[in-house]
Amino acid sequence: MQPVVEAKQVNKVYGGKGNVYTALDQIDLTVQEGEFVGIMGPSGSGKSTLLNMLATIDQPTSGDIVIAGTSILKMNEEQLSIFRRDRLGFIFQDFNLLDTLTVRENILLPLALAKMNIHELERRVDEIADKFGIRQILDKYPTHISGGQKQRTAASRAIVSKPSLILADEPTGALDSKSATDLLESLRDLNEQDKSTILMVTHDAFAASYCKRVLFIKDGRMFTELVKGHANRKEFFNKVLDVLSVLGGGISDVI
Ligand SMILES: Nc1ncnc2c1ncn2[C@@H]1O[C@H](COP(=O)(O)OP(=O)(O)OP(=O)(O)O)[C@@H](O)[C@H]1O
């Protein structure tokens, strides 16, 4: 089976001329189809830098990123933007919803760009709205819905085009615990029922406990990984906490 995404010996160096900072140091990572992988680590350890590279928003200083068999280094800007549109779904903490469009229109946006048939578009939006429990707010504007509903709208938009990979950066960061749990359960269902592949950066051990595997980064290097296996969510949560306690260095930032 071909991996959905691979990072190969990825380095990222910021700055220059005596002021060099290595944000990522020889990172290797493989995510297979159908995985739900978390990335954790102290503040400044390189999580967002790695996610931005996997999202093709940023490029490694050396090493390679291969998504669905294609090296992103071999693509030009136009190919990359088509690739992002067709293959990737993004869920970021700040939602990025357009206030002048309704919830339905926000969700439709990536599909409209892909020029799909209108009936197919509407069917897809209704199906996803049911999945995320936001059908009753489809005709409202973002300014008239709650933070949790905004986040679920953003998540719906991220998956509407059936991307091969969903990338989430602190998706529960701005949510209260009920909304966070709803979103995490939706992501888990998406992974288990629809076999979506999900990669999620999080500070939150509770959020990480929904993943099947969690990678821990420290000082730009891969520190260790935990596999959920047959553990239940509570047991896995405790294992995540154990690793965080030995990870040290800014641990208070992590939990
Ligand atoms: N554009 C940049 N220029 C210089 N240094 C940067 C840049 N972006 C990030 N860094 C540095 O790289 C390191 C990794 O940053 P990154 O945002 O990936 O960390 P993080 O693990 O996501 O942190 P947090 O959990 O606080 O969001 C940090 O020390 C940061 O200051």
Distance between the first and last residues' Cα: 35 Å
**Total number of β-strand segments?**
10
Average of per-residue pLDDT values: 88
Low-confidence stretches: 250-255
Give the ligands present: adenosine-5'-triphosphate
Give the total of domains. Answer: 1
CATH superfamily: P-loop containing nucleotide triphosphate hydrolases
Strand content: 15-25%
- Briefly, what CATH class? Alpha Beta
User: Major β-sheet, in short?
Assistant: 6 strands, mixed
Rounded Rg: 18 Å
How much helix, percentage-wise, in residues? Answer: 25-40%
Protein name: ABC transporter ATP-binding protein
InterPro entries: AAA+_ATPase, ABC_transporter-like_ATP-bd, MacB-like_ATP-bd, P-loop_NTPase
GO molecular function, one term: ATP binding
Family: Belongs to the ABC transporter superfamily.
Explain how this protein is built.
The protein is an alpha/beta fold. It has a single domain (3-253), classed as Rossmann fold, CATH 3.40.50. Helices cover 38% and strands 24% of the residues. The protein is built from 9 helices and 10 strands. It has helices at 47-54, 77-87, 103-113, 118-132, 147-159, 177-193, 205-208, 233-247, 251-254; strands at 5-14, 21-31, 36-40, 62-67, 70-71, 88-92, 165-169, 198-201, 213-218, 221-227. The strands form 2 sheets. It has a 6-stranded mixed sheet, sandwiched between helices. It has a 4-stranded antiparallel sheet with strand order 2-1-4-5, covered by helices on one side. Helix 3 (103-113) packs parallel to helix 5 (147-159), helix 4 (118-132) packs across helix 5 (147-159) and helix 5 (147-159) packs parallel to helix 6. It is globular. It binds adenosine-5'-triphosphate. Residues 14, 21, 23, 41, 43-49 line the site of adenosine-5'-triphosphate.
